[in-house]
Design goal:
This protein is α+β, with helices and mostly antiparallel strands and about 725 residues long. The protein folds into 2 domains: about 120 residues, no CATH class; about 475 residues, Rossmann fold (3-Layer(aba) Sandwich). The protein is about 25% helix and about 20% strand. Strands 15, 16, 18, 20, 22, 24, 25 and 28 form an 8-stranded mixed sheet that branches. The chain has a 4-stranded antiparallel sheet with strand order 7-8-6-12. The two termini are about 20 Å apart. The N terminus is likely disordered.
Length: about 725
Amino acid sequence: MKSLGSGHPFGWRVLGWRVCAGLISAGVLAFLAASGAAASAKTLPACLSRCGYRTIKTTVHGASSGRVDARSSGQKMARIRGSYLSTSATDAGRLSTGQMSVEVVLQPQNEAGLTSVLNDLYTPGNSDYGHWLAAGQFDSEFAPSQATVSAVTAYLQSEGLTVQPTSTPFLLRAIGSSAQLDAAFATTIDNYRNAQGVSFYSNAAPASVPASLASSVLGVVGLTNTVRLQSQATTATAAGQGSQEPSCEIPYPTTLAQLQAIPVNGPFNGYGGGPGCSGLTPSQTNSIYDAPNGGPRARGAGANVAVFELSAYNHADITNWAHTFYGSHFQPRLDDINVDGGPLAPNTSKCPAGDTCFYGYGGDIEVQADIEQDLTIAPDTDSLIVYNAPNDDTGQTELDEYATIANQDKADSVSSSWAICEPDAGLAYAEAENILFEQMAAQGQSMFSSSGDTGAFECIRDGTFSDHAPLQSLDPSTQPWVTSAGGTSFESFDPGSNADPSYPFGTEAVWNTLDVCSGNNSSTASSTGIMNCNTYGAGGGGHSIFWPMPSYQRGPGVINPYTVYGPSNCALAAAGQPCREGPDLSADADPLTGYAEYCTGSTYVSPNPTGTDYESACLGLTKTPGAPGWFHIGGTSLSAPLLAALFSDRDAFHGYRTGNANPLLYRLFDSPFTDAADFHDITGFRQVSNNNGFYPVTPAYDEATGIGTPNFTGLITGSGF
């Protein structure tokens, strides 16, 4: 935390010579039971086939070194690794548009040196441990050389494209017609329509660049418009026909009929001490997870926490929420930083040419949940920074926002509750993000992201589930320098009005109410199995299709019967190298045992060209009798800011940045001396909810709940050795 001084008792790291020497629904378990097969990833395609599902292999083409082709001009072209992802959607013909923009992702200079630096920064006992890079130092040491930038720029301009710099030296923006982009990258961009009726465009073959530039270009962002990030907030709504709002303190459902009786118009209220039984209060959340009585420093004083957002929000609602729980004297220290014009500036924004940007309050329920969750865990933070850009279809505004967070280096801990399933993100976008997350990690910034709300099947809410293999995870939570936040439930434990409840040992379970996401309560898997994950929600988890398992990811259960290996299952892994697994750490995410949110909405009319899809999410919610505007909220988008605020508290308490949380988390988890003190293991023992739709809950690490859930006192006050 540079905002706390040097960011570490020993100050910033000086690189110099070191660098020169060398970054919601599924019935799978029912399928497996019906087939009599062992529960392993290898048997999944056969089991799905028996139940009438098409098994569509998600293949990242060109995962190895780029193949060299010859153009008609005689120029040798090299295919960009992983630049084409096969799809079962119907090709609707070539895209033809007069102007669109893409971002060319450039390879960091001296990547081996960057890897070495990150390793040194996160290895206890190393002389450079915790000596974070200063703002600007990452670019000065690892940005592509001017010769590389000039060579790539010259090629793009020779193809008739206009080239512009972006907010990071690792991305170059190129603008031109779709035909010019087709020619420049030796591919064709086609229109598609999938089985759900979703239309999109994507390159129909691998993208290529001149062979002389191949080692400098990682990918091209913007050749597809499937990168519209989704909120991971979930209110408790169901497909039932209930007609009345439940009264205060409603028991947790124990039958499918009770679950289906939750009013379809929601939100469900009947839990915790919030107004109108609208969910857990800040006092209850901190008490359950055993927050220390450490004064303002243990509540974030001296640190800055940030949220990554893509929607406008109502500041007055945040004030009302804070006054309800902390008194009228309390004023949230919000710092709004808009990127690309922000979420309400269609006339002055910097929406990329040819892209579609979305303006309005369509994600206000997410933004306000994130902010209120940060204030729950870190109310005394020096500043709660709300970074905000317009959402878009190609991921370019999101990259601009992450670049701003990294370049400003103001936030000690950051969370994002906005995500997209990996196949829709694409490898180019993921690699662009990774560079920015490496920058944040090198600067000592912690980054957290939601693992998803549809169990092991995270392409469902993108509308592209039919286009990819069933088991999918979310980006950015699968990124190696991001902490993936999973989801649990307190199920039958309800603290009611008790302001200081204790942790309910043996009760906290994976979030997957009654295992409906697994199809255990459905007559046929095809009728309710897969869609139950979307309807009722479940904690995300599984393996990445891109990233290998990082060296820090170790401990009991990390290598398990569900572990898969590269490069066939994760494109960037070496042969025999296991794939990155998630989640890393979990917290309560079940909307039925959720947190008290206050959100009244806005009457702002969105000017989006696609109609009303970005109007206020909170405005249309059913009003809670006696407590309008209050409801309980869940989803792993609540886990992510909870964990980010937790590590902001840790930074403030110790007076220096922790940096990326994962190396510390797995080091503590892998030690018998700290595991029990810092985490609650979710074992699945004698619990109805014991999987996330495919991955079972087990003692130690599992791909449904990760390491488990946090003990706040241990993680805030412990040294981490």
